[in-house]
Amino acid sequence: MAKKGHKYIFVLGGVMSGVGKGVATSSIGLLLQQKGYAVNLVKVDPYLNVDAGTMNPTEHGEVFVLKSGLETDQDMGNYERFLNRDLTPEDYMTSGMVYQSVIDRERALGYGGKCVEAIPHVRDEIMRRFEAAAAYNGSHISVIEIGGTVGDFQNALFIEAARVLKMERPEDVLFVIVSYLPTPGTLGEMKTKPTQTAVRDLNSYGVQPDFIIARSHEPIDEKRKEKIAVSCNVRKDHIISAPDIKSIYEAPLNFNRGKLGDEMLEALHLSEKRKASLAAWKRFALAVNDEKAPEVSIAIVGKYFDTGDFVLSDAYLSVIEAIKFSAAKLGRRADITWINSKHFEEGEPVAQLGKYQGIIVPGGFGESGIEGKIKAIQYAREHKIPYLGLCYGMQLMVIEYARHVAGIKNAHTTEIKKSAEAPVVDIMPEQKQNLSAGNYGATMRLGAYPAHLKKGTIARAAYKKELIEERHRHRYEINPAYIEQITNAGLVFSGTSPDGVLMEIAELPRSVHPFMLGTQFHPELQARPLEPHPLFTEFLKAAAVHSSKA
Ligand code: GLN
Q1: Domain locations in the chain as residue ranges
Q2: 314-361 pLDDT tens trace
Q3: 365 touches ligand 1 (CB under 6 Å)
Q4: Which of 185, 242, 249, 379 has a CA that sits 20 to 30 A from residue 20's CA?
Q5: CATH topology of domain 290-545
Q6: What CATH number does the domain located at 7-283 have?
Q7: What is the pLDDT of residues 51-77, one digit of tens each?
């Protein structure tokens, strides 16, 4: 059970999705944390997948892996970045997870012969999870984002569970609706009606919002605030104007100007424990948006690029953010270009990469665009362009080196070529079993693992310590049988599992290349606005001084 007096803030969406519920949730969390409260942020995803791991990133955005290894929605990444702390599996739930618990319990006769129903059993399981998240984290306040919009079939049981919690502890629960106020081009006037309708929809669940975050293109004026207040039955000072902003990192600053944190504490019967200091955040938000900062041009060479810009940035969200944080720290602005590696296979000249100051090959799965990526990596190595390889980007960097420098001509990964003559990247035995049993969900090497860093390497100098912990998500590893041959040819495995068996970081010495490094893990998952990731920072430092052939 959660502590007595534990507070819950539920964040719901009205009118339409995609207007920034996740950012609102993260910002509320940050503001309350800055006022001295321990906060945990919870994401509720109403879909039936048991976790986000089996979903295609071009359709659903990046899969964000928690320290524990749970594969979650990309919103969890934003939560961690705003709070600057790790979240736990208790902080994430899907309908699939909830139903799986209820059904497992029913199969084990856990309901004592009763008919098992959505109400009360599924609802109660949801409430148990809300409480478990609060208790596990030992926080004062849980901010819980319910995915989808009010009126969806899928999220109704979650709203119902929240309603019952409010009924049981009226002093401890707040509802926030993040709504949208459109300004139709033909009218040129901001309309409040959709928000009024959304609130009425929410009322039909027996829920009255305490706050309305009014998203719109321009700030909302007093007249409209009054109109919304009266028609939606919400205090005027609880209607927070949230106009479009240049970057999501400005949102907490805007909310703070609207006194959202103070108003929420008051509504929760809490007093401010300390004056919120957003100074460091403000400095970061300014730096990350500084359009006058000198540019550093980065090419990201990958494959999930066919579906247009809209999806693209979501599929690699953490990578983009990690680049931005390190660039801001260095007083730079990263100009990112997306390059589809398939084009290099179709004959487009790889020399176009000479235009960029740095190249990244991010994580990925499957065959498509692989040889194009290898060409790009070879170009980066031979032309001494700073290179960072993330997971697949590291495996392919090792394959490229094996083929072209270590003389292992047929080097390949068994992910692509099962019968590869030289399986330099190979599947782990337990992964083989998983795949042959058709066991795909949550069975990769997932979550945080320690790695030991070799003295005198770029990695060790960047991290400034010997033992690190980073998050993984992959099935394949560098094959130990080839390590000696590759190492003798000059590639350095600067990070390994503590027992020395798994290769976690590969790099070329600075004497041969300004920065050529790949990680078997995903460093981007631990990059934070106020704590940029050291490897991204080192990569960008090298890129910043590289003169491209523009
Ligand atoms: N496909 C590779 C593997 O499973 C790399 C995965 C990744 O880049 N996340 O090992």
Answers
A1: 7-283, 290-545
A2: 888 999 999 999 999 999 999 999 999 999 999 999 999 999 999 999
A3: yes
A4: 185
A5: Rossmann fold (3.40.50)
A6: 3.40.50.300
A7: 888 888 777 789 999 999 999 999 999
